[in-house]
Specification:
Layout (H helix, E strand, L loop, with lengths): L4 E4 L1 H8 L8 E8 L2 H15 L10 E2 L3 E4 L27 E4 L4 E4 L26 E4 L3 E6 L8 E2 L2 E7 L8 E5 L5 E6 L8 E8 L7 E5 L5 E3 L2 E2 L8 E8 L2 E2 L6 H24 L1
Antiparallel strand pairs: 1-2, 2-13, 3-4, 4-17, 5-8, 6-7, 8-14, 9-18, 10-13, 10-17, 11-12, 11-14, 15-16
The chain binds calcium ion (CA) (2 copies).
The site of one calcium ion (CA) has 8 residues, from loops.
Length: 281
């Protein structure tokens, strides 16, 4: 499929037009096509919107503003057929991301020349955006991404997340959902169809100060059970390549409900005392 689809900022335009609440204000970056060149301009526009430039520092840090995970440096010991630890990108390579899934774990695909095939054994379905490794949950189409101050157990939030899906062939099953730290849904969007072996970029950047505590990635409807084995013979299997996100930052302090109640009660007492004084006089 060579048709290239591109739309930047549609979410914002729709949001303004339909007068969505401020919590829905995310700028969308999306594109789909047959090869990396088809989505690279949109990936680059997302990078520019988040900031951090194009030169990676240690642990996938770009400038001080953005992190990326392209999976390609994951060692053989944590690549297919071996599982990837859920906290690999906060412990082994501290990038402030811990993964979770209702499935049984995660796999990063093998490089050529290893003991197992590349691309989870599906060379006619998948390709890498960044050679050679791609990523999937195991026995599930769900990957939850939570953010931490990199290398610590302190929860954090980000203001932007985007990724590259591989082999999206059916509309409306592959999607991103963003949640705040209180688990309120902030943003949802389905990925563009790219066709067999195609690549889809989907990302969004908060433009009104929203903070993302968790990203839920739904990658297709099928599942990868193990190298070369799918969960069912028919539904759309989708895997992932590069993740891009704003540098995880400390969660802003908000007044505790109890403190707020005490503050209001205190103000009430002041008013009562003031009124009493008037009558006493
Ligand atoms: Ca890669
Ligand atoms: Ca597919």
């Amino acid at each position: 499929m060579h048709k290239k689809l591109l739309s930047v900022g549609v979410g914002t335009v729709l949001g303004l037009f339909l007068n969505f609440p401020a919590s829905a204000a995310f700028t969308v970056f999306e594109a789909a096509g047959a090869d990396p060149a088809a989505i690279t301009p949109t990936r680059d526009a997302f990078r520019t919107a988040v900031g951090g430039g194009t030169v990676a520092g240690a642990n996938g840090l770009f400038g001080t503003e953005r992190r990326e995970i392209n999976w390609d440096g994951v060692p053989v010991t944590f690549s297919d057929p071996n599982g990837l630890p859920a906290d690999f990108f906060n412990v082994n390579s501290p990038r402030g991301v811990v993964l979770a899934t209702p499935g049984t774990g995660f796999l990063v695909s093998a490089n050529a020349g290893g003991s197992v095939p590349t691309l989870f054994g599906f060379p006619n379905d998948f390709q890498a955006f960044s050679p050679q490794k791609v990523f999937t949950a195991v026995n599930s189409n769900i990957t939850d991404v939570r953010f931490f101050l990199p290398g610590t157990s302190t929860a954090a939030t980000t203001d932007a997340f985007g990724l590259i899906f591989v082999d999206v062939e059916v509309a409306n099953s592959t999607r991103l959902d963003f949640f705040d730290v209180s688990n309120n849904l902030l943003f949802s969007r389905t990925a563009l169809v790219a066709g067999n072996q195609g690549l889809s970029f989907l990302g969004a950047v908060a433009n009104s100060g929203e903070t993302i505590g968790r990203v839920r990635i739904t990658s297709g409807a099928n599942t990868i059970v193990s190298n070369g084995v799918l969960g069912d013979p028919t539904s759309d299997v989708v895997v992932m390549d590069d993740f891009l996100y704003g540098e995880p930052l400390a969660i802003a302090a908000v007044p505790e409900p109890e403190s707020y109640a005490m503050l209001l009660a205190g103000l009430g007492m002041v008013g009562w005392v003031t009124r009493r004084r008037k009558y006493v006089r």
